[in-house]
Amino acid sequence: MLRFSGDDQFVDTFAQRFADHTGKLVSTRAHVVALQLVVELAHHYGLRPVDTITEEQALDPYPTLNRWADMAWVRCRIRRVSASRLYDTAREYSLISGRLAPYTTDLSVARRAFRRARNDETLAALVAHNSEDVFDAVGMKDAVDASVSNLKNRRAELMARLSGFSKCAKEQGHHAIFLTFTTPSRFHSVHRNGNQNQNWLEAGKPSVRDAQQWLVKTFNNIRKKADKEGIKPYGFRFAEPHHDGTPHWHAVLFMTLADIKTYIKICRHYMLADSGNEPGARQHRFKVVFIDPRKGDAVAYCSKYVAKNIDGFAVGNDHEAGKRAKSIETAARVDAWKSDNRIRQFQQLGGPSVQAWREFRRVREPLEQDNQMLQDLTPEQHFALENVRMAANAGDWQAFCCAMGGVQVRRNDQTVRVSYGIPEAMQMLCDEDGVLKHKPRGRTQFGDMASDRPMGLMFSQVFILTRAKDWLITSKEKWEAACQKTMEGINEQFEVLKAEKAYAFMEYEEFEQMRLHAICDHESRVWLLYPDTERLAGPPLGCEPHGGGLDPCH
What we know:
By secondary structure, the protein is an alpha+beta fold. The chain is built from 20 helices and 13 strands. It folds into four domains: 8-92, no CATH class; 151-349, no CATH class; 369-469, no CATH class; 501-554, no CATH class. It has helices at residues 8-28, 31-44, 55-59, 62-68, 71-92, 106-124, 140-145, 151-172, 198-202, 208-228, 257-271, 281-284, 298-308, 327-341, 354-360, 379-393, 397-403, 424-427, 476-499, 502-516, and strands spanning 126-130, 133-139, 175-181, 234-241, 247-255, 286-290, 346-349, 417-420, 454-459, 462-465, 471-475, 518-521, 526-529. The termini are far apart. InterPro entries: Replication_gene_A-like.
């Protein structure tokens, strides 16, 4: 029996038993039959495998079987499903509400905090080092803290990009609107007073993920219709929970005043297309606020929504969670809610690629025009490329948008595009031994093809490598042992050289080489070095006693 509320020891034991059982099925049954049995068993325990075996899985069942036979993978699957099932159960019993526990349960918050602490311990015990140089290393905890996984860095980057969009809008005469998208009442489990919502019960108790999917589908319809009308808004959308955990979206968008009127009509049409006549739908389903620049720009208006859903920095009270709820405390509840239901909180709408922005921020040094890879670029092209790099390095999202072609430029028309993988021509760069420095995409530990990862940037058929090193992740103990082994090997080499008096031999060889490139002036008793291998005019090399003296000019 699988208990979704079990502790880590229980989960580890169950995952190991499931993985061992899968291994036995693989060794005793035909692989396609084994895959069917494993999928049925996973369904029995509620682990949510694929509903049907795809044609690709039937032809190559090994990657899927390898996953279910791996204890660590099964454990991760159990934890993910457990968090979701526990959350759904809490909503079913009305344990999540503004009166009891806003956004999520106290148990979920505690589990999330415990998991974060365990992750920090794990990261602190790991080291990432260059595959070619074991001494080129960084602690995984330091690497994560320096990335956007750090809440402060994530908030700072979001605010920088939002500020850049606001400046672009001001420069182009665009206006800002703040939109709120809410799901129909059947997705809300409880009312403000804590009583269960009858519409939710009659609808079959839809989950938080069902509500999120409804918002995604509806917003996609809005986006497609707006695109047909030639409206290209840009900005951000934020997902956050109601007091009962039901998601709703906010969005700050920039566009022309004429486009705003049409866009609002499109939004209202699609938001009210589903259950638009139910009580309160026209008042709450879709709301619009015109941001008055005289009272404050979009950055000031949205800063609290960004901070409230990340770390609660400088927000104050969270009125959605309750009258006296502090945002710095409820931010942890929002984080647990997002994790349990796998909600994407922030999404950029329009504008250039943020991945290109992050890749360029890896290129700290100027791109010199005499670089061998950039020699075919015209001065104008080199200026355009360097302009993008400088904007990204300066953290100036407005300048980056302009350098990439504008806030409304299509992805394929942007100045620079992210390259996933390395071009074939670049693959031919070899080291002295003729071994490829950068290997093509390989396979995962389970046997299927690994996903492409960003390796560089493409500009006018020119590839710019941004990830020149292959990093290996290992434990600190193994890394320290590898460093010690390397140092022992170096010490052994020095001991051998010392024992064979190789240093004296090397000095003698160097002395003889110097004599071949020098002339002795016997009378002046000096040696004169000359750089060329061809002999200068004068007496032959060898310092014969009767050789004539050299002219000092020589």
